[in-house]
Amino acid sequence: MSPRETERILAFDREHIWHPYAPIPATVPVHPVVSAKGVRLTLADGTELIDGMSSWWAAVHGYGHPELDAAVTGQLGRMAHVMFGGLTHPPAVRLAERLVEITPEPLTKVFFADSGSVAVEVAIKMAMQYWRSQGRPERHRLLTVRGGYHGDTFGDMAVCDPVNGMHHLFSDVLARHVFAPPPPLGYSAEPDRAYLDELSRLAAAHAHELAGIIVEPIVQGAGGMRFYAPEYLRALRDIADEHGLLLVLDEIATGFGRTGELWGCDHAEVAPDIMCLGKALTGGYMTMAVTLCTDRVAHGITSGEAGVLMHGPTYMANPLAAAVASASIDLLMSRDWRDEVDTIEAILSSGLGGAAELPGVADVRVLGAIGVVEAREPVDVPAVQKLAMDHGVWLRPFGKLIYAMPPYVCTEDEVDHIAAAMWAIAESL
C-alpha cells in the first residue's frame, strides 16, 4: 500500500470509524495492518510485529494456518451461510458433538451465538427463564463478584463490575444484581476464610431471589486481569448446590487452554450448569460463541410456559464459523498445547519476575499463557504501545495493566521478545 493510500485510509478512519472504547474523531493513532502470518502482523510501512495479544486472545494458532484456511475455503465451496431456523447442517452438528465431548460431562446442550457478549446474554436468559419455567419468576437476580467483565451488551453490563468497570455510565438503567467483593488476589494464595464466609452470607441472604451465580473462573479478564485461588470457585459451586442456584461460568477468555488447563473450571475440578465459550473457539478466524448447559437446565426451560428458549440470532451456527471452529479444536487437541502453554508461562515468569521490584510497578503475575504487569498509575497507552512496537511487539494495555496473551505457537525467542518489551515498558513507568 502506497504512503498516499495509507494516509487516505487513516484520515477516513480517524473521522468516520468507531474503534473499541474510542472517540470520534480519534485522538490516538491506529496502525494499519495489511497482512498477518504466523504470529506476526505486517503494517502498511512494512513493519513486522509479534502479536502479543492473539487478537484479543483468540488467535491461539496464529494467522494463516493451512488447516484452518482449508476449513474455511472448503466450507465456502459448499455454502457460506444458511438460516438455522428449521434447518441444520453438518458443520453445526459436528461442532456440537465435539464441544459436548471435550467440555465438562454434565454439559450436553449447545446454543450457538454470534459473539461472546451474546453468549453471556443467552446464559443469563437461560438462568432466568429456567426459574420462570419452574414457577419462580422472583428468582431473577444473579450473584457475582466485583472485578468481573462479561461483555458490553445490557445484560452483560449488569453483571460487570459496577464501580471500577467500563459501564458505570449506564448504572441507572441496568438490572440490579448482587455483588460480592472481588476474590482475593493470588492463584496460589491460601483461601481467606472471612471471604468465603462473606460469599456464603450473601448467597443465603438473597437465595430467595437469585437465579444463579456468574463468574469468570480463576482469571478475571478485562475487569482487571486478576487471578484467584481455585478454592473460591469450589466454594461457589458448593453455594450454588446448597441453595439450588445455577452456576454460570464465563470461559470466553479462559477456555481452550489459556490458563494452563483446558477450561478454567478444571483448576477447581468443578463443572458449571451453564458455560459460555468464545474467542479462541474459531482460532480467531470468525466471530462465533457458544452457550452450553446441562439437561436439567434445558429440560427446565422447555417445560415452562414458553416451551422454547427465547433467543435466535440471524447468523446462529454460521457454517463457515462452525467449520473453522471444529478445525481449530481438532488442531488444538492434536498438538501438545499444554506444553506450549507451560513454556510460555515459564518464559514470561522468568522474563518478568524482577519487574515487581521496579518503582512504577505494583504487581507482576503470570498464569498459563497470560502475563500481567500492573502499574501503580494508569499508563499512557500511545506511549506504551510505541515502546512495545519499538521492540517489535504488539501489545494493547488498558488502565494500569500491561499484559500479554501470546499465541500458543510462539517460539521461545518470540515469547522472549514479548517479555522484553513488557520489561522495557515496566522500566519506563
From TrEMBL:
Domain of life: Bacteria
Key words, A-Z: Aminotransferase, Biotin biosynthesis, Cytoplasm, Pyridoxal phosphate, S-adenosyl-L-methionine, Transferase
GO BP: biotin biosynthetic process
CDD domains: OAT_like
Binding site for pyridoxal 5'-phosphate: 116-117, 250, 313-314
Record-level Gene Ontology MF annotations: adenosylmethionine-8-amino-7-oxononanoate transaminase activity; pyridoxal phosphate binding
Residue ranges crossing the lipid bilayer per the database entry: none
Cofactor(s) the protein needs: pyridoxal 5'-phosphate
Record PTM N6-(pyridoxal phosphate)lysine, positions in chain: 279
Annotated site residues (Participates in the substrate recognition with KAPA and in a stacking interaction with the adenine ring of SAM) in this chain: 21
EC number per UniProt: 2.6.1.62
Official protein name in the record: Adenosylmethionine-8-amino-7-oxononanoate aminotransferase
UniProt source species: Actinomadura rubrisoli
Gene: bioA
